[in-house]
Specification:
Layout lengths: L1 H20 L5 H18 L5 H36 L1 H12 L3 H19 L4 H12 L4 H12 L6 H14 L3 H28 L9 H21 L5 H17 L19 H20 L5 H8 L2 E5 L8 E5 L4 H15 L4 H35 L1 H13 L3 H16 L2 H19 L3 H18 L1 H10 L6 H30 L1
Antiparallel strand pairs: 1-2
Helix pairs in contact: 1-2, 1-16, 2-3, 2-15, 3-6, 3-14, 3-15, 4-12, 5-6, 5-7, 5-8, 5-9, 5-11, 6-7, 6-20, 7-9, 7-20, 7-21, 8-9, 8-18, 9-10, 9-19, 10-11, 12-14, 15-20, 16-17, 17-18, 17-19, 17-21, 18-19, 19-21
Length: 508
Amino acid sequence: MELLYFILGLCPILWLIFALTVLKMPTYKAAFGSLIVAGVLAFIVWQLPAMEVLTAALEGILMAIWPIVVVIIAAVFTYNLSLRTGGIDVIKQMITSVSNDKRILVLLIAWCFGGFMEGMAGFGTAIAIPAGMLLTLGFDPIFSCLVCLIANGAPTPFGSIGIPTVTLANLVGLENTQLSFITSLQLAPFMLVIPFLIVMVTGKGPKALKGVTGITLATGISFVIPQLAVSYFVGAELAVVVGSVCSLLVTVLLASKKKTDPAYEMKVEKHSINAKDALKSCSPFIFIFIFLLSTSKLIAPVNDFLAQFASTIYVYSGENPNAMTFTWINTAGVWIFLSAILGGFIQKASFNDFKEVFIATLKQMKETIITMLCVLGCAKIMGYAGMIASIVTFAIAVTGSFYPFVAPCLGCLGTFVTGSGTSSGVLFGAVQQNAAVSLNADPYWIVALNSLGVAAGKMLSPQSIAIALSSVDQKGKDSILLSKILPYGLGFLIAMALIAYIGLQLFY
């Protein structure tokens, strides 16, 4: 019977995979199908009353709207407005002035800048904005999406000023810095490998590493070591932000001294850019950094003051509903919108520019928005009905002492379904901790494995794929992009399972 419930519980996810890979449906249609499948199964098999199915879905939809959809729209709006004002062109010129080697450029944009955007804002910004920037440089749109998806996975547990890891630590009652450090330690091998993968994808094979092996290694090391240090001494909040900035500085320093290989040279116009123009073009992103940092928990008085502007409601009509807190001011989407507006004024954007760009952004993102609403609604139905619990209970019963192999898979599954590292932690954090107690294993190691799996799940998530394609105006090519990213995500997941088990045996 447990096997039957396990299989049925997986059906919404299996449908999503089948619809995207076999039927080649657009993500928003496949996600809507998953929502329907989850609702029907919850009502018929798990006997969740119709009203509770509806309110569970509504809770997920509201969670998707605020803050996730708001953040994504704000991020893409920021990029589109900077594109309209010419700010992106200046940033592009600044980056290409460092090097015109396409391998270095992809590292700078997808890995370094993408990591910074993930650490500051998260929620898809690190995919949307860098992918758009690569497109404007002349890279293929699908390639741009692919490298940004590869680059985005590992920093995700520390996205948006560390929200996924901080939330997970608070949820299960573990200490922030220790959990952050263990998570960073588990992620370290992958963060060293990812720059090499990015270079090889850019140059279509290992031969692309010739001449840039040292820079590629330095790019990874200069990200990992600061991240480990900040995780250990400070916690999750600034781990990826500091790591990405250090990686950017080291990469720029080394790249500026290297002669470009003609085989990888991009033909770009070089212009002299003064400090004033550079600051103007970067102003939206500078404001994002200032606002998100100054309103984070690191600045407790400001954070505490803004926290009062919030509303807490209960949407789910069944037993043990989750409290939904809507933070009206101190949320990433609000600050990114404000940053875009202030940066737009500095860049001399007109009212008509703001209006037209905003409307165009909404049209561009409408399918992505539908996808997010359906996926989060599906996730909530699965959680409240007990479908998630059925999946996990069977996994623990079957694997026993080999559960660490499965732990990252749960984190991956949670992120695949919800598109969010934070949501994955909320779904499976307590399960991972209970499994650690049952196995008499170190709870920090097991719980951190959920975040490790998040890195693979983020690459493969339909939400991530939809965001990436929307940012380069390639909607409807979800199956193509999924087929390209799938080998990397599955390869990472297998390696994560091995690290999970072997690491536990060696160190705990």
